[in-house]
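User: I'm writing a tutorial on reading structure tokens. Could you give me a worked example: one chain, its sequence, then its tokens, then a sentence or two explaining what the tokens reveal?
Assistant: Sure. Here is the example chain.
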Amino acid sequence: MNYVLDHVGIAVRSIDDILPFYLNVLKGELIDRYTSDAPGVEVHVAVVRTDDKIMELLEPTNKNSPIARFVKQKGKGVHHIAYRVDDLDKAISEARQNGVRFLDNTLRTNSRGRRLIYMNPASTDGTLIELCDYK
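And here are its predicted structure tokens:
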């Protein structure tokens, strides 16, 4: 199974406040912007590309969203690291065979067609890792 860095998710309080930094200072390009109102997600997303790297700026849409809880508990900053895999189902199976636990309620397809799941941070020494594929 190949694991390729897909993107880094960054929790922010306000996309509009931080976006100029990514566009003007880091010379990034805004390639997508959308809102996910799915239960358990509730987030505004701005996707920024710098050269061959992708960052997702994640702004909570309500005080109970996972990103709002993250910002309240840990502050702004890196929320997760995402790895693209060839076959998400196979990657999950292989990881489970190696004792990795997942946050099973996170398995979903987002509004942009990306299938994803998050590994339980207890299995990754505290880092929230997303596995994803694009069908």
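What the tokens reveal: The longest strand covers residues 4-11. The domain at 4-134 is CATH 3.10.180.10 (2,3-Dihydroxybiphenyl 1,2-Dioxygenase; domain 1).
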